Amino acid sequence: MCLDRPVVLVLEDLHWADESSLAAILAILHNLAHVPLLVMATLRPTPRTPELDVLLDECAAAGTRILQLRSLESADVNALVHHQLGGRAGPLLSSIIDKAGGNPLWLVELIRSLTTEGWLMRDAEVVEAVGDELPSTLRDLVLRRLRYLPTATLDQLQLASLLGEAVSIRDLAAVARRPSVELVADLSEAFRARLLDEHADAVVFRHQLVQQAIYEDLPIPLRKALHRDAASALASSGADVSKVASHMLLGAEQGDLEAVRWLCEAAVEATATAPAIAVKLLRRAIELLPAGHGALISSALSSQRRCKTPGKSLKPLPWLRRCSRGRTATRSTSRFASHWCPRFLFRIDRSQ
Q: For residue 339, what pLDDT band results from cuts at 50, 70 and 90?
């Protein structure tokens, strides 16, 4: 055929090719360089067999041109979304789309899944999502594309997803209870697959939807237990109070006195800069209190009688007062509210 006219041979998904197919391509490379034949192949960074490595090395030695596709720019993402949906994305849908990290495959599949499962609504030219969770069809697709990774790598990605989009190796080693050098070896395939990247001293998921898909695949009871274990491990490693408390918040059960202490400490730290977070932490601490332990929060906060936040308007937390008056108030929450309402004060409105 090449003797009659130039030929273009296109090979897709070369990473899935078997040994015989790779051997045939290698034979073309060595024996048909003199004919008008252009071979174009597409492949992902992983999986990568030894035979594929040999072929790629031979191609590089022969002067093959390699094009590495980059993430789509913001304008290109918007154009693709408009082409797929016939309108522009609303704020919530835009935040979900950002999780694709400019990857056109994830972006198209994300839009397709949201459309198929009826999670989109249209108002004139604006298309908006009805929720921020990933559709189950997309989550399954993402997980299927990760199954070729070694089990050890998948296990570490699962723990990393628990810790967030960006994770320090030190924290991951503490939660995994393994030396950092072993984790680096386990995560090497994830870096090679371009699922992870480096940013400063942290390991970062390149696409947030991959992190979210792995995380949401964990059954909720297991997720809570892992968060609680992570809190204990981080506490033992000397992690910041806020970091420990964030996992206590997600994993502690009622009656967990250690979690109550951590939440109170984190609330004290947060009052000056993030009072809303302090309220959330203290509210959760009260929910975790068993009957008869109302003085626990008081003792945990004994060193912080009054917040030193500057401002004109300082007043008690009204929800603490309500703790001692509501029908569902326990003796423990009543004692806590009556003791701390006059003392635990902070600015909630500078303008008043």
A: very low
Query: Taking 90 as the threshold, does the pLDDT of residue 260 lie above it?
Result: no
Query: Do 329 and 336 form a contact (C-beta atoms < 8 A)?
Result: no
* Structure confidence by residue, pLDDT tens digits, 200-241: 778 999 888 899 999 999 999 999 999 999 999 999 999 999
Residue with tokens 């967030």: 164
Residue 176's closest CA among 195, 155, 161? Answer: 155
Instruction: Give, as one character, the DSSP assignment of residue 252.
Output: -
**Residues facing 81 on adjacent strands:** none
Across 306-334, average pLDDT: 41
Among residues of the chain, what percentage have pLDDT more than 90? 34
Q: From residue 335, how far is each of 91, 92, 222, 316, 347 by CA, in Å?
A: 44, 42, 34, 15, 23
Query: What is residue 250's predicted lDDT score, i.e. its pLDDT?
Result: 94
- Pick the most confident of 43-57, 90-104, 288-302, 338-352: 90-104
CA distances from 125 to 117, 119, 253 (A): 20, 17, 45
Element (H, E) at 190: helix 180-192
Cis peptide before 36 (omega within 30 of 0): no
CA distance readout (Å), 333 to 239, 300, 326: 29, 14, 10
- Residues in Cβ contact with 35 at an 8 Å cutoff, skipping those fewer than 6 apart: 2, 3
Q: How far, in Å, CA of 156 to CA of 182, rounded? A: 10
The neighbour count for residue 319, using CB atoms within 10 Å, is: 14
Q: Is 162 exposed, middle or buried (0-12, 13-18, 19+ CB in 10 A)?
A: buried
| Residues 55 and 22: beta-carbon distance below 8 Å | yes
Q: How many Cβ atoms from other residues are within 10 Å of residue 66's Cβ? A: 8
257, exposed or middle or buried, with CB in 10 Å at 0-12, 13-18, 19+? middle
State which of 20-29, 133-142, 309-318 shows the largest mean pLDDT: 20-29
Distance between CA atoms of 194 and 105, rounded to whole angstroms? 14
CB-based burial of residue 274 (10 Å sphere; 0-12 exposed, 13-18 middle, 19+ buried)?
Answer: middle
Hey, is 194 helix, strand or coil? coil
The first and second tokens of residue 296, run together, are 């626990």
